[in-house]
Every structure is written in structure tokens, then in C-alpha cells.
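Holo prediction — 6-O-phosphono-beta-D-glucopyranose.
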Amino acid sequence: MHLAARLLYSALMNLPDCVTLENASDYPVYVIRHPKVTGKVAVNGAHVMEWQPTSQAHPVLYLSPDAVLERGKAIRGGIPICWPWFGGHPADSTKPMHGIARILDWELLRVDVKDTHVAMLFQLKSTEASRAHWPYDFTCHLGISLGEKLEVSLMTQNTGRESFVITEALHTYLSVGDISKTVVRGLTGAKFVDTVGGQHTPHDGEEAPVTFDREVDRQYVSTGGVVIEDPAWGRKLIVDKLGSGTTVVWNPWIEKSKRLGDLPDEAFHGFLCVEAANANESAVRISPGAEHVIVTTVSVG
Ligand SMILES: O=P(O)(O)OC[C@H]1O[C@@H](O)[C@H](O)[C@@H](O)[C@@H]1O
């Protein structure tokens, strides 16, 4: 659907009072102001840019102050949806990094408001634009529930006549008080692929929890959740997931931050990414008519 039609449709949807559609500089964003939670979700990528329970003094998600808000571009921070490939395209390096879902406009189908949360349902269907990058027919639904807990679930349906294989990630940027004191628990013993510098080096599991004193870019074989201890802000973040065989942990540290134009050089001190993903041997084959769901939740312990 064309953007203008989509915006008209949203207007006709009678958005609840706590959700408004703001359209500064032709960049539509749903803004949530609910007694229990505030948030922002961009039409571009159905991208959760912000989510903050009103009980929290500090933001939970990280959003770069230099993030580029332009349709067709990925946002640095929040939760980019990496789909239908995670990382670089396996065969064609000219295709967009992390796939197309984060750079296409999604359509809001429904909003439900409860005392405790706001739930939104977005849809992305295959079009000529998507087929130019990926030649398959699909419908994706993204459910986002913003409350004391954040839940994001991505369902991929194969609406075509041939099977396809996807890799994917719910690429969650989390704010922390000090990355050098941050500890990620829940991945001990898990094999991982180290991808720092673009290499893909397999490793056996480690007994120590994950800590940060340099760039970390790892794809763990893991179906379970993690706990992120952030002593600087005296809190724990709990990231859980379903339908995911890979957990990606990423912090760019200083050199890579300098190379990323949409991230301040020193911003790496204040975030890490923990991504519910399916990569490598967890790539998902979906038959015609079949579907696959991946879910991540984030809460503050
Ligand atoms: O800059 P992008 O395309 O948003 O990717 C950010 C990072 O995303 C992570 O998931 C990857 O593991 C990193 O290698 C990558 O640098």
C-alpha cells in the first residue's frame, strides 16, 4: 500500500487516545503515551525505536542520538528486524545488510489498549519492491506489546509455491550504565561463532559469563534467555525468547563505533545488543503454506 494510503488508513482506524501518528519530515512514527509505558514505533521497519515502562528511571532500549530517520534506511538502536537474511546477504554483497524488513514500510493492522499495555500488530507483504531483493511471496506479521514487559513476535508465512530459507534477528539494543562492568549470563557452555572483523571463527563454549573490554560480535548456539547485569545502574535486564536457535551478542567498541556514522564515537559505553536470532545451522526452511514464529521479550528485573 502506498504511504499516503497507509496514513489515511491509520487515520480512519481511530487510533486510541494514547497512540498518535506523528509524521515529521515524511517519517511516520506511532507515539505511545500510556500511564504505564511510553514508546515510539516507526512505520519504516515497524521499528520499535523507544520503549520505557514509566516505573523505570533509565531507558531500557538504546537509540542512537545520531540515528538517521529516513524512509528506506535502517535506524541505529531500538529493535531493527533483520529478515529474511541476518548479516550480509549470503550470495550478493550489494544487497542490504540484515535484509529488507527493517527498510520497508509496514502497515499497522490493529491497536489494542489495556490497563497494563498497548499491543500493536503490523503486516509486511511481498511486493515488487521486496521481490527485487528476494524473489519469494510472503506475509510477515509483527506483534509488539509494550507494557512493563516488551514482547516482539515476528511470524513469517510462506504464501508462495516454493520453499524458502530465512535467517533473522530481533536485533535488540539495550541501554546500560557502563558496558565495561556489564555481564551477560546464560550463555556459558554454548558454542559460538566469533565474527569480529568479518571472520567467522567457531569456538567451543566458555565457562565464564560474557564481559566486554573490546569489540564483541558473537553468534551463540542457544535457545534460552539471558540476564544482563548492569551494576552501574543497579539493575538486571532479562531477555527471553522462543523459536530462536541463535543468540547474538554485539558491542562495537571504539574502532567500529568510529566507522559507524550514525553512532557517536563514545556511545558504545552505554549499550549492547542481545539478539534473538536464527543464523547458521538455525536457518529456517518454510514450506509453501507454512509459517514460523520468533519471539523476544525484555523486562527489568
Ligand atoms: O550496522 P548494522 O547493519 O545495523 O549491523 C550492526 C551489527 O549487527 C550485529 O547483529 C552484527 O553481529 C554485527 O556484525 C553488525 O555490525
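READOUT: The domain at 3-300 is CATH 2.70.98.10 (Beta-galactosidase; Chain A, domain 5).
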